[in-house]
Design a protein that fits this description.
The protein is mainly beta. Helices cover 9% and strands 38% of the residues.
Length: 629
């Protein structure tokens, strides 16, 4: 496993990791490693605990010793070496001292009198990105300097991809934002590099694989696009929606959320194939060092018998893994755990069935969570506590299936109940499933719980904790939700986790959508408008852990491609209810024509809504959870 720290749930992202893993920094790291190797063993002064991730993400170079000034840190193992006191540095047998720190010119001057006689001193400023692509050159490890993400990017004779988002940074005062992009092919080689300028308005940002292919005269590719946003404010993560669609008319259509910029030790929520399906896991190396053979493995969730992948994956390369080749007996609704060793950001998977495919993403499995006994005795003021809302699409056309998914290393049970609500918020069904084991294969078919005529126009379900039959919980309740057309022609799936919703009382960091101190719950969701050929839609749910406003005060604000408001329509959703939003039916044809290439911003200053979005194209459709800013 890579010895890197990427994301902490309390402190957020680790800028050191992004500073070392950036493709441009990785090239300079390789040059630095070659230079250090040529000069012989290196004495490393590690004042900020950077050496371990540096060792993980850089080519090997000989190390004489690792030195620290903190007496409490003596004897620690960092990057394979045991730390020594800085007082021993003058006697080191070396011609070069590496200070493992950025913005280290003053530190270098201070340490020079303690270095071995004649030794050269270098710092990690040697691998800095150019100032021209830094948002804040004066403080290198400012997280805003590393607003980056990866995108699964494909273009061939059959499929194409399109990234879409908005310039949400301008709402935080950003000016002259631009994107620096590098496209890697399946082998990990860079095949295109470009900058994408963004006007100073809250307009649409779109990058299409077909346009990139034409611009750089590329052949077919399946790889990953690295994006670095420069000049940003407010958010240090590039959020986007990604459509994957058929260009040959066979009807495939998928949408997925952003890649989650932080590599994880494990991922979960990968479904095993049905008898008529093939499930392909797309593994994409997020670093400039190879993934060693055996470093990534697949396991039936809860089996603890991981099957290692035998082939090395080169830097930034993409590999298609047929899960049936490694777990041949496994079938839906069993699920698969990916032991990724922190080598990649959130992977995509592709399900092939008949002549169509659908793409979805797995989710991060948390290593830092333990069962929390206090969840069994939450204050009644918090009502039903944690809720995981998911749409039930109109049942005349769609079948909806829910699969609870363990999403923490120590999660041995899932004590679970399902509550089902009509569009108007009426509670229709409550069913307990007891404490499901980690290795369960219990898919919940909504058809089996409702009569033939129930929810013809749709509704939604909420997974909640239920300790009546035992079990433990950690607050990280997740599920995978599968939607199938009843004629069997196409399907889509999405996954997400629970939160507390719409309660004036708080517990730890829940609810998470307060604008300022509580109370003050709000919603700001992005819905790409799509096109007449592939119009968008979304399902908005209004979950409430406890009593809240009887109706939402929701506004659907139509923007054009330059971020200008074209039209606005109100929407009132009943508490514990939901609504299907189809912009192409809500707004006038004149407004839609003026808004071509734009988006709908879903705003509510009175409650937190949770949404799932998609597009339609003939009999095909896509579906995934929405993002906000």
């Amino acid at each position: 496993m890579l010895d890197i720290e990427t994301f902490d749930n309390l402190r957020g992202g680790n800028a050191v990791y992004k500073a070392l893993a950036h493709p441009l920094a990785a090239e300079k790291l390789a040059e630095l490693a070659n230079r250090l190797t040529a000069l012989g063993p290196v004495a490393v002064y590690d004042p900020e605990r950077i050496f371990a991730p540096l060792r993980a993400l850089a080519p090997d170079f000989p190390v004489e010793g690792v030195y620290v000034h903190d007496t409490l840190a003596l004897g620690e193992l960092r990057g394979g070496a045991t730390t020594r006191p800085l007082t021993e540095l003058p006697g080191a047998n070396t011609r070069i001292v590496l200070i493992a720190a950025f913005d280290a010119h003053r530190l270098a001057a201070r340490i020079k009198p303690f270095a071995p006689a004649g030794a050269e001193i270098v710092t990690l400023d040697a691998v800095r990105l150019p100032d021209s692509i830094l948002t804040n050159p004066r403080r290198y490890l400012d997280p805003l300097n590393f607003a980056t993400n990866f995108v699964f990017f494909r273009d061939d004779d059959r499929m194409a991809t399109r990234l879409v988002t908005a310039n949400y940074w301008t709402g935080y005062g950003a000016k002259s934002v631009r994107l620096w992009c590098r496209l890697f092919d399946a082998a990990g080689g860079p095949i295109a590099e470009f900058e994408h300028a963004i006007p100073d308005h809250a307009g649409t940002i779109a990058i299409g694989s077909d346009a990139i292919r034409r611009r750089f005269n590329l052949g077919p590719f399946t790889g990953q696009l690295f994006i670095h946003a420069i000049g940003v404010a407010g958010h240090d993560v590039v959020k986007y929606a990604l459509d994957t669609f058929a260009r040959d008319g066979h009807g495939s259509l998928s949408c997925t959320h952003d890649a989650n910029a932080w590599p994880s030790e494990r991922f979960a929520g990968l479904p095993a194939p049905r008898e008529d399906e093939r499930v392909i896991l797309w593994l994409q190396n997020s670093h400039a060092v190879p993934i060693p053979a055996g470093a990534v493995s697949l396991d039936r969730m809860g089996a603890e018998i991981p099957v290692a992948l035998s082939a090395e994956i080169p830097p930034f390369a993409t590999r298609a893994i047929d899960v049936a080749e490694h777990l041949p007996e496994l079938r839906w609704p069993a699920q698969i755990e990916i032991r990724a060793g922190r080598h990649m950001v959130r992977p995509r998977y592709e399900v092939e069935c008949a002549n169509r495919t659908r793409i979805a993403h797995v989710n991060v499995e948390r290593a830092d969570l333990k069962p929390d006994p206090s969840l069994k005795s939450l204050s009644p003021l918090l009502g039903r506590g944690f809720l995981l809302p998911f749409p039930i699409l109109p049942r005349r056309d769609f079948r909806t299936v829910a699969l609870p998914t363990p999403m923490a290393h120590t999660q041995a049970t899932i004590p679970l109940r399902l509550d089902i609500f009509a569009l108007d918020g009426t509670l229709l069904v409550q069913k307990s499933y007891g404490a499901l084991r980690r290795d369960h294969a219990s898919a919940i078919d909504i058809d089996e719980l409702l009569g033939a005529d129930a929810l013809p126009e749709g509704g939604h379900g909420e997974l909640v904790y239920d300790f009546s039959q035992g079990g433990e919980a950690d607050g990280w309740l997740h599920g995978l939700f599968r939607y199938e057309l009843r004629d069997g022609s196409h399907a889509a799936e999405t996954s997400f986790g629970a939160h507390m919703f719409n309660t004036i009382m708080t517990w730890k960091n829940e609810p998470q959508s307060y604008a300022g101190p509580p109370p003050g719950l709000s919603t700001r969701l992005f819905l790409d408008l799509g096109t007449e050929a592939r119009p968008s839609f979304c399902v908005l749910t209004y979950p409430a852990s406890a009593r809240w406003h009887a109706f939402s005060d929701t506004h659907l604000v139509l923007h054009d491609a330059k971020g200008r408001v074209i039209a606005e329509e109100p929407l009132a959703i009943a508490c514990s209810g939901s609504a299907m939003v189809e912009p192409w039916r809500i707004f006038t044809s004149e407004a839609l024509s003026r808004a071509e290439g734009g988006y709908v911003l879903i705003r509510d200053a009175t409650c937190r809504l949770f949404g799932y979005h998609g597009k339609r194209s003939g009999s095909a459709f896509s579906f995934d959870h929405m993002f906000g800013f």
